[in-house]
């Protein structure tokens, strides 16, 4: 893997470029991908997920040109914290599914088509990682936030919601490019969504098997020690969040 290109706006598709924030971690991979969307000949752009309130990164992002609109894929700080500062700097509104994140603009709704930056951008509500997670579809590509990462799997808040969101993404046309909130871009998002769904179903089977040994009232930590025994222990804490979501799903009356 080549070294991350921090501080350099990288063109990924004809209408999408990415500026990588220097905030690497086990949760953010190389860092947060701040996406800059701009249609041919458009005067302004749409910036998706400015990232943390990292003034160096946000200043570089502001230097990419006029900004017409800022969109947040969800509320986590590594995507949204810097949005108010950035909005004031570039004089653009912030829109998100969660109304409390919006600045000078109204909340987004599932199925809405946003016209900005010379593009039509469709909003797809994809809860699971968080309740307010969205994906954004435009020009044969889809920005996934943390719903699907460029590498590895995402931490879950609600597994039932997440499985339904994956099934939405599986319906995308083959070859739809995935532009994630962390990690490298994906050449075929529907194929990746199918892989994610298979992985989640496999994990559910592993949790079911662990519960047969540990007992129905096993704690998330006990399950992690069995199911994630081959995973770096540094990742066990976030794994507990996902296992809690799996246990909630399995213990719910409608967990099917």
TrEMBL record:
<dbReference type="Pfam" id="PF00753">
    <property type="entry name" value="Lactamase_B"/>
</dbReference>
<protein>
    <submittedName>
        <fullName>MBL fold metallo-hydrolase</fullName>
    </submittedName>
</protein>
<dbReference type="InterPro" id="IPR041516">
    <property type="entry name" value="LACTB2_WH"/>
</dbReference>
<dbReference type="InterPro" id="IPR036388">
    <property type="entry name" value="WH-like_DNA-bd_sf"/>
</dbReference>
<dbReference type="InterPro" id="IPR001279">
    <property type="entry name" value="Metallo-B-lactamas"/>
</dbReference>
<feature type="domain" description="Metallo-beta-lactamase">
    <location>
        <begin position="31"/>
        <end position="182"/>
    </location>
</feature>
<keyword id="KW-0378">Hydrolase</keyword>
<dbReference type="Pfam" id="PF17778">
    <property type="entry name" value="WHD_BLACT"/>
</dbReference>
<dbReference type="InterPro" id="IPR036866">
    <property type="entry name" value="RibonucZ/Hydroxyglut_hydro"/>
</dbReference>
<dbReference type="GO" id="GO:0016787">
    <property type="term" value="F:hydrolase activity"/>
</dbReference>
<dbReference type="InterPro" id="IPR050662">
    <property type="entry name" value="Sec-metab_biosynth-thioest"/>
</dbReference>
């Amino acid at each position: 893997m080549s070294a991350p290109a921090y501080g350099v706006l990288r063109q990924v598709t004809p209408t999408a470029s990415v500026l990588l924030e220097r905030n690497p971690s086990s949760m953010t991979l190389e860092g947060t991908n701040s996406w800059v969307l701009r249609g041919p000949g458009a005067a302004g752009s749409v910036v998706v997920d400015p990232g943390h309130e990292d003034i160096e990164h946000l200043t570089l992002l502001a230097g990419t040109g006029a900004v017409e609109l800022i969109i947040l894929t969800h509320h986590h700080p590594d995507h949204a914290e810097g949005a108010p500062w950035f909005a004031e700097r570039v004089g653009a509104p912030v829109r998100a599914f969660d109304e409390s994140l919006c600045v000078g603009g109204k909340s987004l709704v599932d199925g809405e088509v946003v016209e900005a930056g010379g593009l039509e951008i469709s909003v797809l509500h994809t809860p699971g990682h968080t309740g307010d997670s969205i994906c954004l579809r435009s020009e044969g590509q889809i920005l996934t936030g943390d719903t699907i990462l460029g590498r590895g799997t995402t931490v879950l808040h609600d597994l039932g919601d997440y499985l339904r969101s994956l099934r939405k993404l599986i319906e995308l046309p083959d070859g739809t490019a995935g532009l994630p909130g962390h990690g490298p871009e994906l050449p075929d998002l529907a194929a990746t969504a199918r892989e994610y769904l298979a992985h989640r179903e496999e994990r559910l089977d592993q949790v079911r098997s662990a519960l047969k040994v540990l007992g129905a009232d096993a704690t998330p930590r006990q399950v992690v020690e069995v199911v994630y025994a081959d995973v770096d222990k540094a990742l066990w804490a976030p794994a507990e969040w996902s296992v809690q979501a799996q246990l909630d799903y399995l213990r719910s009356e409608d967990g099917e």
